[in-house]
């Protein structure tokens, strides 16, 4: 998705910002309490630039839901005070960001904009419900007491669990018939079958083929996905380490390789679970008790947990950290 706001010529603008990350998927947050900072794609790309700007995988405008300016988002205003206006590093608009929801929640809490331990945030993919201090890891049942759940390092990070809402296979009939609905080719190797899932944003999950090392994949270029999704896709490469435990690397739409992707971790766990027979369709007829609902997902930037919930809902949990605050002067518009 790409937005195309008018870019009026004007004098340089000063913006307050906060830098944060969730398992090293990092974001520049821009508070916009009046809904009056319509960042253009080039301004977003500049803010996300690691050399000329602040640097991040994405930019998140923190704006009152009622002032979002997008009817489908403003419809959520009675349930969520704040809208996570998410943009990728290249300036394109995305519907959702799993790690971003936790960092967004951490910002709302720190600023006193949300005080309850549970609240909803508005996104382009609908309402997302957040629980503070919910690690979600194996052993704590998803209700970590001290706020430092699984994946939270000793750096002042707090754990959050977010219900990412409903997910679905993008092409259920094709996936049921073949176990896959796409082919993905990375570097110059052969194309591998993959599964497309919709987590509010698009994902294509690839099981690491035998003989290939996850660490050796060249993700400096976008993997070739066929059929080519019109809106692009995020591509996850998965290695199974044990029951309920996977490793993942991701090439994100609008960014490139990132050190973590929350919706991608959920897509990866759900794809592995589905391949194991855990889909509602019963894929290969394997008994459901052989299919776990709780996954540990290791990513280059840390660990998150994914929990499959009834009704095709899925919960993501992991840490969020706010690491810097500052003011920046945007380059003048031309
Ligand atoms: N890193 C995010 C996903 C961000 C959006 C994605 N690049 C897209 O374009 O869909 C996550 O944690 O989910």
From TrEMBL:
<dbReference type="InterPro" id="IPR001653">
    <property type="entry name" value="DAP_epimerase_DapF"/>
</dbReference>
<comment type="subunit">
    <text>Homodimer.</text>
</comment>
<feature type="binding site">
    <location>
        <begin position="252"/>
        <end position="253"/>
    </location>
    <ligand>
        <name>substrate</name>
    </ligand>
</feature>
<feature type="binding site">
    <location>
        <position position="234"/>
    </location>
    <ligand>
        <name>substrate</name>
    </ligand>
</feature>
<feature type="binding site">
    <location>
        <begin position="98"/>
        <end position="99"/>
    </location>
    <ligand>
        <name>substrate</name>
    </ligand>
</feature>
<protein>
    <recommendedName>
        <fullName>Diaminopimelate epimerase</fullName>
        <ecNumber>5.1.1.7</ecNumber>
    </recommendedName>
</protein>
<dbReference type="InterPro" id="IPR018510">
    <property type="entry name" value="DAP_epimerase_AS"/>
</dbReference>
<feature type="site" description="Could be important to modulate the pK values of the two catalytic cysteine residues">
    <location>
        <position position="203"/>
    </location>
</feature>
<dbReference type="GO" id="GO:0008837">
    <property type="term" value="F:diaminopimelate epimerase activity"/>
</dbReference>
<feature type="active site">
    <location>
        <position position="97"/>
    </location>
</feature>
<feature type="active site" description="Proton acceptor">
    <location>
        <position position="261"/>
    </location>
</feature>
<keyword id="KW-0457">Lysine biosynthesis</keyword>
<comment type="similarity">
    <text>Belongs to the diaminopimelate epimerase family.</text>
</comment>
<feature type="region of interest" description="Disordered">
    <location>
        <begin position="134"/>
        <end position="153"/>
    </location>
</feature>
<feature type="binding site">
    <location>
        <position position="201"/>
    </location>
    <ligand>
        <name>substrate</name>
    </ligand>
</feature>
<keyword id="KW-0413">Isomerase</keyword>
<comment type="pathway">
    <text>Amino-acid biosynthesis; L-lysine biosynthesis via DAP pathway; DL-2,6-diaminopimelate from LL-2,6-diaminopimelate: step 1/1.</text>
</comment>
<feature type="binding site">
    <location>
        <position position="88"/>
    </location>
    <ligand>
        <name>substrate</name>
    </ligand>
</feature>
<keyword id="KW-0028">Amino-acid biosynthesis</keyword>
<keyword id="KW-0963">Cytoplasm</keyword>
<comment type="function">
    <text>Catalyzes the stereoinversion of LL-2,6-diaminopimelate (L,L-DAP) to meso-diaminopimelate (meso-DAP), a precursor of L-lysine and an essential component of the bacterial peptidoglycan.</text>
</comment>
<feature type="binding site">
    <location>
        <position position="25"/>
    </location>
    <ligand>
        <name>substrate</name>
    </ligand>
</feature>
<feature type="region of interest" description="Disordered">
    <location>
        <begin position="1"/>
        <end position="21"/>
    </location>
</feature>
<feature type="site" description="Could be important to modulate the pK values of the two catalytic cysteine residues">
    <location>
        <position position="252"/>
    </location>
</feature>
<dbReference type="Pfam" id="PF01678">
    <property type="entry name" value="DAP_epimerase"/>
</dbReference>
<feature type="active site" description="Proton donor">
    <location>
        <position position="97"/>
    </location>
</feature>
<feature type="binding site">
    <location>
        <begin position="262"/>
        <end position="263"/>
    </location>
    <ligand>
        <name>substrate</name>
    </ligand>
</feature>
């Amino acid at each position: 998705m790409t937005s195309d706001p008018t870019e009026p010529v004007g004098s340089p603008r000063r913006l307050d910002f906060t830098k944060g990350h969730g398992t090293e998927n990092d974001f520049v947050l821009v508070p916009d309490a009046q809904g009056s900072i319509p960042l253009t794609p080039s301004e977003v790309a500049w803010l996300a630039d690691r050399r000329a700007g602040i640097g991040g995988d994405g930019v998140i405008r923190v704006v009152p839901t009622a002032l979002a300016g997008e009817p489908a988002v403003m419809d959520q205003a009675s349930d969520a005070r704040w809208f996570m206006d998410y943009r990728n590093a290249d300036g394109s608009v995305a519907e959702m960001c799993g790690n971003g929801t936790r960092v967004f929640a951490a910002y709302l809490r720190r600023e006193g904009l949300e005080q309850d331990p549970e609240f909803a945030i508005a996104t382009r993919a609908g309402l997302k419900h957040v629980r503070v201090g919910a690690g979600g890891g194996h052993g704590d049942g998803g209700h970590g007491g001290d706020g430092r759940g699984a994946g939270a390092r000793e750096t002042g990070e707090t754990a959050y669990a977010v219900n990412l809402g409903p997910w679905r296979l993008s092409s259920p009939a094709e996936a049921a018939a073949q176990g896959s609905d796409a082919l993905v080719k990375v570097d110059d190797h052969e194309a591998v079958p993959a599964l497309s899932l919709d987590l509010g944003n698009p994902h294509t999950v690839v099981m690491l083929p035998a003989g290939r090392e996850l660490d050796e994949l060249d993700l400096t270029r976008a993997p070739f996905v066929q059929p080519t999704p019109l809106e692009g896709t995020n591509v996850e490469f998965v290695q199974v380490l044990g029951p309920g435990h996977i490793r993942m690397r991701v090439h994100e739409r609008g960014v490139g390789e990132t050190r973590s992707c929350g919706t991608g971790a959920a897509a990866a766990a759900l794809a592995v679970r589905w391949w194991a027979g855990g889909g509602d369709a019963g894929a290969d007829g394997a008994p459901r008790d052989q299919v776990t609902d709780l996954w540990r997902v290791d990513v280059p930037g840390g660990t998150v947990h994914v929990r499959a919930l009834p009704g095709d809902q899925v919960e993501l949990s992991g840490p969020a950290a706010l690491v810097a605050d500052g003011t920046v002067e945007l380059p003048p518009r031309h």
